[in-house]
Fold this sequence. Notes:
Layout: E1 3-13, E2 19-21, H1 29-35, E3 39-42, H2 55-58, H3 75-86, E4 90-95, H4 114-130, E5 142-145, H5 166-183, E6 188-190, H6 200-216, E7 222-229, H7 232-248, E8 255-263, H8 270-274, H9 279-291, H10 293-307, E9 313-316, H11 340-351, E10 353-359, E11 366-372, E12 376-383, E13 389-390, E14 393-396, E15 404-411, E16 418-425, E17 435-436, E18 440-448
Parallel strand pairs: 1-14, 2-3, 2-9, 3-4, 4-5, 5-6, 7-8, 8-9
Antiparallel strand pairs: 1-10, 10-11, 11-12, 12-18, 13-17, 15-16, 15-18
Helix pairs in contact: 4-5, 5-6, 7-10, 10-11
Amino acid sequence: MDFTIDLTRPLGEVKPVNGVCNGPSKFTAKYFKRAHIPFSRLHDMRTHFHGCCDIPMIFRDFDADENDPANYDFTLSDYYIEKIKECGTDIIYRLGSSMEQGDFRFYNRPPKDYAKWARICEHVIRHYNEGWANGHHYDIKYFEIWNEPDGCNPNREMDGQWTGTPEEFGEFLSVAASHLKAAFPDRYIGAYPSCNILSPEREAFFRTVFSILRERGTPIDFCPWHCYVDDPNRTKKYIAKIRSLLDEYGYRDTVQICTEWNYFWVRPGLWAEFELEGGEYLFEELFKTASSHVGAAYSLAQMITFQHSEVKMATMHRADALSMYCTMFNIYGVPQKQFSAFYAYDALREGGTEVTLVKGEHTDGVYAMASGDRNALYIAVSQYRGAWRSYRFEILGLDPDAEYIAERYLTDDMRDFSPVGTQEGRPEALSLRPYLKANSVFVMKIRKKF
């Protein structure tokens, strides 16, 4: 048997690791709702929304009085967050600025007054949670300080997020996190999102920062980090590395949240290849692959990997349609095959409780998960790098005397979460041997007839 599912052995919550970065457009909002996207992380709100949730866009004159509501402009950020909330999606609010790319930088320097910056953020939080400045009561729980300060660009002035030293960032973070946690003890304050903790220079940056945080006793509720790979097994190395570092610096209770991830080739010299003649075609191939059935299979495999780790939540980068990293929807707002992975994981979330699934031999490269109970069972499979063949499932715990309806959905090179058959009957009559090509996503919903 390739997979054995035991409904009598529940494992716990199906975690919200199917979040995204950024919010919907008028065309994509219905897909957010259909996939029940649990969280949206506010970062890189470009083009139409001009980085609307970024601190410099809300509080434009840093020398102004931070206690005066007239010095804040929440117009665009209010609209943007309202549209996210209308989808039933909660917020992870990134406090800072969006990534700056290209030939110019405007907001990548350390704030000239760390304490004042923290007080500005305090007022932003009060606007969205306590109604300050004609605000709202959204009960946003997660606030993430800054983004990727460890870019480590050799030309420090052109770093996308932080031109200061690791020591300066440690001091800044200690001031900001301590102030915000004291102001909002019931909120989760997180820092800092590392762009690649497996890189030696980024690890050195992390160590410098957390040595300062440890020395000052700075509270950090969650540690966000970013992961762009093409193999979920490599993701496990990120998780283990972050845990090891947090433990080493005394942050054993700090939880992990992956606030950026997507399919990305991992090979030496890749970024140098992008700079060569014709590099734009390589970029196109990469991001078209991420949008395709390959990206779909990878994405479900990645979410299952997060579920089976200590990661509490995760948000895929990104769910709008405004840059090459936007692989879930095209520029017209049409969902790409990658988005089918989020339909698949949503089926698992519908089950509520994960149940035990044991893999047999010859299932390497296949990621499978099940949730539910004997009344409704949901199975999702990513055939990412396994063998092209039929996979046999055994289900223990269904009611042998009951009638069931089994619905099947498939995403591959020819289908996009397409129905591929419905069966009715007792458990022994249901076909549980899907044939899966490489880079395919299979979902089965088995519901008891009452």
